[in-house]
Amino acid sequence: MGTQANFVLKVLIFSAGISVLIKYGGPSLPLAATRVNTLIAVLTPAFVLAIALASRRVIALLGRAKNYQPPD
Q1: 48-71: pLDDT as tens digits
Q2: 5, 52, 64, 70: which sits with the fewest CB atoms below 10 Å from its CB?
Q3: Every domain of the chain and the residues it spans
């Protein structure tokens, strides 16, 4: 139980750090507030996660296909 609590605490601290960086460091970035930049910022994490999960699935399927033996 302690390791789960430690993990949650680490995630909360990391998340708070990112929030502080975005809040205070974000305005100093030379980015215009356009619709395209907003869509990129919002959709990039979802696309990265989708690609990571899809690649894990493809690798798992290829591993099963490699060890496949037809029934007798």
Answers
A1: 999 999 999 888 888 776 666 666
A2: 70
A3: 1-29, 31-72
What is the SS3 assignment for 31? coil
DSSP 41-60: HHHHHHHHHHHHHHHHHHHH
From CA 31, how far away is CA 39, in angstroms rounded?
13
Cα(66)–Cα(60) distance, integer angstroms: 10
Distance CA 63, CA 60 (A): 5
Torsion over CA: 61, 64, 65, 71 (sign): negative
From the number of C-beta atoms within 10 Å of its C-beta (0-12, 13-18, 19+), residue 66 rates as exposed
Q: What is the pTM of this model?
A: 0.54
